[in-house]
Automatic annotation (TrEMBL):
Positions of the UniProt region annotated as Disordered: 1-37
Biased composition (Basic and acidic residues): 1-10, 18-37
Organism: Treponema phagedenis
Name assigned to this protein: Uncharacterized protein
């Protein structure tokens, strides 16, 4: 059984860009990368795990990790937008 450790996956750091558009683009790229990674992991689990119960457990863990990371990307963005208000 393959072990998936989403916590150990690294995402690129947000670097300061040439302004507001640059950081938003970086955020969009990071979210896009996260979605691609999640989709690839899901396909890998579906193809490599024969036991349906084990497959469902791994898919659930993968889904939870995805949404946890997704939320962590949005938190700084939301705080920044609220400060502008």
């Amino acid at each position: 059984m393959p072990e998936f450790e989403p916590e150990k996956l690294s995402m690129p750091e947000i670097t300061s860009g040439k302004g507001k558009e640059s950081s938003e683009k970086t955020q969009a790229e990071r979210l896009s990368d996260l979605e691609k990674e999640h989709k690839a992991e899901t396909e890998l689990i579906k193809k490599s795990v024969a036991d349906k119960k084990e497959q469902e457990e791994l898919l659930l863990k993968n889904e939870e990790a995805f949404y946890k990371k997704d939320l962590s990307f949005y938190k700084p963005f939301i705080k920044k937008m609220l400060q502008k208000i």
